[in-house]
Structure formats: C-alpha cells, structure tokens
Design goal:
It is a single chain. By secondary structure, this protein is mostly helical. It has a single domain, classed as Up-down Bundle (Four Helix Bundle (Hemerythrin (Met), subunit A)), CATH 1.20.120. The protein is built from seven helices and two strands. Strands 1-2 form a two-stranded parallel ribbon. Helix 3 (about 40-65) packs antiparallel against helix 4 and helix 5 (about 105-135) packs antiparallel against helix 6. The radius of gyration is 19 Å and the shape is elongated.
Length: about 200
Amino acid sequence: MKQIHGRSPVEKKRTFITWMLAPAWLALLVATQPEGFETLGYSLIEFLGFFLVFGAVLGRLWCTLYIGGRKDAELCQRGPYSLSRNPLYFFSFLGLVGVCLAAQNILLMIISASAFILYYRSVILNEERRLLSLFGADYVLYMARVPRFFPRLDYPDGEDTVIVNASAFIRSLRDVAWFLVAIVGIEVIEELRQAAVISGWQLPL
C-alpha cells in the first residue's frame, strides 16, 4: 500500500515563520535607505517595484482561480500551473522583490530574495515528496514537463473553464491585500523621510 505523507513541519510552520520575521524585515525597511534615494535612477527602480507588486497581486489571484480549495485533492496542471509547479510561491517572491524595489532598497531586496529562495526551496522539496505520494506517475510526468519555480514563457494553447471556490478566492484577496498595504506604507515612509521626520542609515545600494 502506498504511503501518503502528511505535511512536513517546514510546510506547517511556513506562515508562522513569515510572521515572526516580518517585524525584523519591517525594521530594516524603515531604518535603512540607499545613498541614491529619490534620484532618477532610484525613482525608476521604485516604478519597477510597483509594477512587480501589482503583477504579483494579479498572479496570486490567477493561481487561486485554479487551485483555490482544491490543493492536494487534484493535480492542477492548467493556467499558471502549466508554466510553473509553484506559481503561488513565485508570485509571492515577485511581490517581495517588488516591495523592496518600491522602497528603493536594493540591498534589502538582495537579502530578502536570498532568504526567500533558501527557505522556500526546503518547503517546495517537502511538498514535492508529498505530492509524489499522492499523485505518483502523473506528478513525475508533470515534473518532467513544467519547471519547479521560475515559469516557462510559452503558454499552452487551449481554453480553460474554471470552477471558482468563492471562499478560497476571498481568502486570497485578503492575502494579496498585504502587498497593497505595503505600497501605501512605503509611500508614507517616503513622505516622512522627505519631511525629515525620520531618516535611515545610508546604504551603498
């Protein structure tokens, strides 16, 4: 009889660890600023950050249309899951990078992106073992065809009809709202810096 693996401790504690690290990340965001803050080059970086954040919001909602409420119940291979095996994590990564760039903080972006990839590599590998036990040969074929994290660029042809889980979609709206709250917060921090209410440590990047 095939052994079905439950969620690993790494998977179960993912959200808890994220919230534990959030205060330290926020403190770094507020307490540091690049040497070229508010120059033209960094303003372009800020615009790129906003673009990535909104892309992440739309991407996570797109994923929820296909997987919301059905994770582990079926092997989703359509929509964003035809481009990446972990599109929700990819779009979260995109949003994290976007928030750091919107804050014009390249050094924080490098630190955050590196920490995300290191931690979520472990999460993804644990999930893969569980999905292999659930879906067997179908998942092996899926792994051979679709990249693990960074998506391929060719979208398969074909029309999709999706049944949307309303409660899962509403939860996803709540989750992506944090990215939009972060953008508002970044704008507030910028206004406070320009008014000399707060000042951050100068960074080389």
